[in-house]
From TrEMBL:
This is S-adenosyl-L-methionine-dependent methyltransferase. The active site is at D170 (proton acceptor). The keyword Chaperone does not apply. The keyword Transferase applies. It comes from Fragilariopsis cylindrus CCMP1102.
């Protein structure tokens, strides 16, 4: 996992950013957010998130499905390790339970410590500053493929689990050349289990990259 703070060429300068860190009463120091660098996160060399694109990506991923459902009580998130998808889901007061399944515990823990603005629920909850600590949230560091197949296979389920009103797949783009990405979108047992994991009027939303 690699994290870079990057100033936008032609828009930001190192001098102005340095001045924004001083407590000298200058315009820059009084408005440091205007001069802060963008934070970009890579996982295994693949761009995962960037602070400047946080709202555009995560709001468009989450809210259309959540508003389209009449009463989204139970939500599952596949991936979403930095916590921003979880943050947007928790903005809906109908939500009673969110199950987030991400195999990479190291990324989740790193994000909690070093990227806390992505999982900041301090303005949404009186009981938790971090979205991961919200009492409605259960986080599993497991293989999401196996988790869904075991519970929602077309055959008799091994483990009983209440279905979800909304399932959000916040995983890598299908264009990314990674072996497990093929499994996400190849129509195999994982993908076939997802309709069984939805309530009658449930909604599945997936991040599928650029058209």
């Amino acid at each position: 996992m690699d994290v870079y703070d990057v100033l936008k060429p032609g828009v930001q300068s190192l001098d102005l950013y340095t001045r924004s860190l001083l407590n000298d009463g200058s315009y820059e120091s009084l408005n440091p957010e205007l001069f802060a660098p963008d934070r970009i996160v890579f996982l295994d060399g693949v761009l995962q998130s960037r602070k400047s694109g946080d709202a555009a990506y995560h709001e468009s991923l989450v809210h259309p499905a959540m508003f389209a459902h009449d009463n989204p009580r139970r939500v599952a998130i596949v991936g979403g390790g930095e916590g921003a998808t979880l943050r947007e889901v928790l903005k809906h007061n109908t939500v009673e339970k969110v199950i987030m399944i991400d195999i990479d515990e190291q990324m989740v823990e790193y994000s909690k410590t070093n990227l806390p603005f992505w999982s900041d629920c301090s303005k949404l909850s009186k009981s938790a500053d971090s979205c991961f600590d919200d009492p409605r949230v259960e986080t599993y560091y497991l293989d999401a493929f196996k988790w869904f197949i075991d519970r929602f296979s077309s055959n008799d389920s091994i483990i009983n689990e209440e279905p979800f009103d909304v399932i959000i797949m916040d995983a890598l783009d299908p264009q990314i050349q990674k072996q497990f990405v093929d499994t996400l979108y190849d129509g195999g047992p994982f993908l076939r289990s997802l309709p069984n994991a939805l309530t009658e009027h449930g909604i599945l939303i997936s991040q599928v990259g650029e058209a």
